[in-house]
Specification:
By secondary structure, this protein is mainly α. It has 2 domains: 3-133; 170-257, no CATH class. The protein has 10 helices and no strands. Helix 4 (40-66) runs antiparallel to helix 5 (74-101). The chain is elongated. The relative contact order is 0.11.
Length: 263
Amino acid sequence: MNIEFLGKLHPFMVHFPIGIIPIIVFFHLITYYKKDLIKPEGYFYLWCLASISALLTIGFGWINLNYAGAPISPKEDLHESLGYFVAFLCVVNLVLWKLILQEKKLKNAYYISVATLVISLSYGGHLGAELTHGSLNPFDFFSTPNHKTHSTTPPTITQPSKITKPTVSFKENIEPILQEYCYDCHSDKKQKGRLRLDTYEFILAGGKNGKVVISKNAQKSELFGRIILPEDDEDVMPSKGDLLNNSQIELIKNWINQGAKNN
């Protein structure tokens, strides 16, 4: 079995602890008013499920993070640390509840641990969602949407000609385009698809699906392939705001075909 396949299970597996832990908290709140709704032993089994699923989740997450071949960002590092902490607290709560069943007076410590777990889980889950889907700002709903400038048909790409094209500069021509259109989702703040486009080195490193720039071959470069997709394609880049115009697309195409140099 390809071990990278297990890493791909992380986004699926994470839903189990995210679902089980709120259920435990919900039952605690309900049983405050209805004492006989769930037996005390029931919480022990729920914490067993939460602990097992949390440990599997961080295991798959570790594989996903370390076998993707892309640089690890500070946000990913924090998300990973919170995952370890959440799994640790699940096991702690399992042990504490087992001791409480044995009539140990540890309920205050238990409830503090549960509250800490909920906060850590919420923030860690938020970071994970941002890493997967980009920025998640609820106030974006109230902002005026940007209208994309592309037509619904892909731009006509000029076929290579025998005339020598002017050399495209990464620093003068390409970097400003990436800064305007790509940094919102692919920089040190957010890494959608574990891809960063804010430095030359990160561009060449690619993302979780591999390289996005193939030197001297724009047609096989995913970066170029994404920016020429029609507006209504779900994979078009950028996914929000205005799309690149034909001149900008041509610059990126020529830069890649000229060797994608750091010039």
